[in-house]
Structures are given as C-alpha cells and as structure tokens.
Amino acid sequence: MPHRNFHKLAWIALALTLCVIAFGAFVRLSHAGLGCPDWPVCYGKLTWPKHEHTIAAANVAFPERPVEVVKAWREQFHRHIAALLGVLVLALAALATRGRRHGWTIIFSASAMVALAIPLYMREQYVASSVLVFIAEAMLLAAAWRWSNTDFARIATFTLAFIIFQAMLGLWTVTWLLKPIVVMAHLLGGMTMFCLLTWMAMRAAPNAALIEPSGVRLKPMLIVAIVLVAIQIALGGWVSANYAALACGVDFPTCLGQWWPDMDFEQALVLWRGIGVDYEGGVLDPDARTAIQMMHRMFALVVVGHVLFLARRLISIGMVHYGWGIGVVLGVQVFLGISNVVGGLPLPIATAHNAVAAILLFLLVGLLARLRPRSS
Predict the structure, then answer these.
(1) Which residues contact 326 (CB under 8 A, 6 or more apart)?
(2) Which residue of 6, 99, 116, 353 lies most exposed, with the fewest beta carbons within 10 A?
(3) Mean pLDDT score, 76-103
(4) Number of C-beta neighbours around residue 81 at 10 A
(5) What's the chain's average pLDDT?
(6) Which DSSP letter does residue 123 get?
(7) Residue 254: pLDDT above 90?
(8) What span, in angstroms and rounded, lies between the C-alpha atoms of 243 and 375?
(9) How far apart are CA 65 and CA 169, in angstroms?
C-alpha cells in the first residue's frame, strides 16, 4: 500500500505540472525560449540580470545574445518551477520506495549523481557529466523494471527517471538553439509527466475506483483516444517549433484562400536537421510550413470524431459527468484552435490552447486510471 500522504503529494505535483506546461507554452509562444543562453543559470546567474551593471556584464560575456530582461525572467522562472516539480517527484519516489530493499539508496544515489553532474556541465566537463547522468538513469530504470507497482514504486521511480530526461531535453532546447525535434519532444515530455502524475494521483486516491460497466469495453476506446490526442499534441508541437501557426494566414477553414494550397510535405516531415543552426523564427519555406499547419488541421478531424464518439458513449452508459466533461473540454479546445488562427495567434489564447490539451489528457488518463474490471 502507498504511504498515506502519497496521493496528496501526487495531486500537488500534478497541479504544479499543469502550471509548468502552461508557463512553458507562454515562454515558447512569447519567443523567450532562448531568453537565457546558458543552462541551468541565466547569463551566469541563478536568477537573471536585473540591474544595469549586471546587464552590461552579461552583454560582454554573451555578445551573441544581448540581455532582454523580459525574456530572461520568463525562461529562468520556468526553470525554477520545473526544478521545484523535480523535488516533488523525488519525494514521491522516496515515499513509494521506502519499504523496498535498497530503495532509498538507489533513489538518493541516482539523484546525487544528477546533482553532481550539473556543476560538472557548467565547468564544461561534458563527458563526465553525461556519464553520471547515464549511470543515474540506468540505476533508476533498472530498479523500476525490477520492482512491482503495488506500492507505486515502479511508476514513481520511472517518473523520477523521466523528469531527469525531461531536464536534459530542456538543456538541449537551449544548447541546440530551439531545434524543432527537441522543442516538440520537450512539449511531449511535459505532457507525459502530466499523464504519469495523473495516473498516480487517481490510482492512489481513496475510493477512486470505478467499476467498468458490463458489456462495455471502455478501456480500448480510452486508449485510442489518448493515443490520438497525443499525436495531435505532437503535431501541434511541430507547428509551434517550426513557427507554422500562421502559415495559412488568418484563414479558416480554408488556407491562404484555398482548400488545398501549395504544400511541401517532404520538407515538412524532415525531423532531424543540423546542429549549430539557430532555429529561432524557423528555417522552413512557406510551403513546408503550410503543410505542417494543414496536417495539424486534418488530423484534428480524426481526433474530434473519435473523442466525441467516446463522450457520447460515456453519457449513454451513465457516466454523464465524464462524457459531458470530455465533450465540453474538446469543444473549448477546438474553439481555441480556431481562435488562434483567425485572431492571429494571440498569446493568452495560444497559451490556453496548450493548457486545455493537458486538461483533456487529464480527463482521459484519469478515467482510464480509475476503471477496474467487473469481478466475475
């Protein structure tokens, strides 16, 4: 059995993760992703340069990227709340493994290695830093594989390993200058963290179990819905990472005044491009960006169709609150997506579009976590 406070801590971590996702979207959409050119500090500071003399010193140290205070504080504040989330995930792993043999030794030894790897990285000892992180990740994943999940030891330890990898994606986002595949992976990593914590919070909560209605196979429909929404989030991340949100102008449902404009799918689907290129602002030509935007729109039809079918099914079998909740959140998400286009990507709406995607995942994954098979 999990610790009596495990589910409470999981809910706190889950709420913070939603804040990290929403604020991360705000940072990305306000073009502050390179607001700090170094990692994990910002222009060599734990916070960011605020005063004239510190800004002047930072501009001398980083002449290729002069300080923009508004962008710097956004990026560094996002890192701080993500670090706080890491501490909460570490606490969850410690609670879940307290009764396991060598449980705390593995959890805290791996965490100490990661903590030691950070100053090594800052001193440009990249090989030593990478080796420590690799060993820590291997320890955590091996333990998660070996342990059962009766006390949430497996999923909590895996989540700790995953948030370390997510931190590495944050590092690569900066050092690889907003490389699109890394930016998209970082977004998906945040959503995956949110799903893992949703599962733990729902599964560990007292009296959360829902018995699956007889004669209805909800789990396959839910799994398909989660996969489709995840693919759509990835496509949305690809749109954002390649600065393709306004590739169709402010036209909807047409694009540039046409139902099928000129598109370059070959370039749009190239996932890996060179390292060392500054991807801020995007590097693709208009036809490739149009293709990315249209893929996101077209797949949205598939997602809406299946999720609406699921919502109607839930209502018909008596799960009215979940059915209407999923349906309403889906409707809000579609409205926000359309508003992004016709409104010219207003920052509050674009940020909300990311947050509502997470809320839709919360409803789907949360319901899946609560379902239990009917005993024969």
Answers:
(1) 307, 310, 311, 314, 360, 363, 364
(2) 99
(3) 96
(4) 15
(5) 95
(6) T
(7) yes
(8) 51
(9) 21
Cβ neighbours of 148 (radius 10 Å): 9
**Cβ–Cβ < 8 Å for 293, 255:** yes
Please tell me the distance from the alpha carbon of residue 16 to that of residue 23, in angstroms, as a whole number: 10
Collapsing DSSP to helix, strand or coil, 318 comes out as: coil
Residue 25, judged by CB atoms within 10 A of its CB (0-12, 13-18, 19+), counts as buried
229 and 364 in contact (C-beta within 8 Å)? Answer: yes
In whole angstroms, give the CA distance from residue 171 to residue 174: 5
Three-state DSSP class for residue 211: strand
Structure letter (DSSP) for residue 50: -
pLDDT at 376 over 70: no
Catalytic positions are 75
Q: Which residues pair with 42 in a beta bridge?
A: 45
Number of DSSP helices (H) and strands (E) in the chain, helices first:
12, 2
Instruction: State yes or no: pLDDT of 214 exceeds 80.
Output: no
Counting beta carbons within 10 angstroms of the beta carbon of residue 210, is it exposed (0 to 12), middle (13 to 18) or buried (19 or more)?
A: middle
Peptide bond into 253 cis (omega under 30): yes
pTM here is 0.95
80's tokens: 């701080």
Among 151-165, 189-203, 212-226, 342-356, the range scoring the smallest mean pLDDT is 212-226
Give the CA distances from residue 206 to residues 201, 202, 203, 239, 306, in Å, rounded to whole numbers and listed in that order.
10, 9, 8, 40, 31
Q: Which two tokens stand for residue 169?
A: 């994606």
Tell me the mean pLDDT in the region 143-170.
Answer: 95
Average pLDDT of the segment spanning 138-165: 95
Q: Which residues pair with 372 in a beta bridge?
A: 211
* Tokens standing for residue 149: 């999940």
Band of pLDDT at residue 1, cut at 50, 70 and 90: low
- Residue 83's nearest CA partner among 163, 179, 203 is 163
Q: In whole angstroms, what is the distance from residue 352 CA to residue 356 CA?
A: 6
Sole residue written with tokens 């002449």: 63
Here the contacts of 324-330 (C-beta below 8 Å, separation 24 or greater) are 325/363, 326/360, 326/363, 326/364, 329/356, 329/359, 329/360, 329/363, 330/304, 330/360
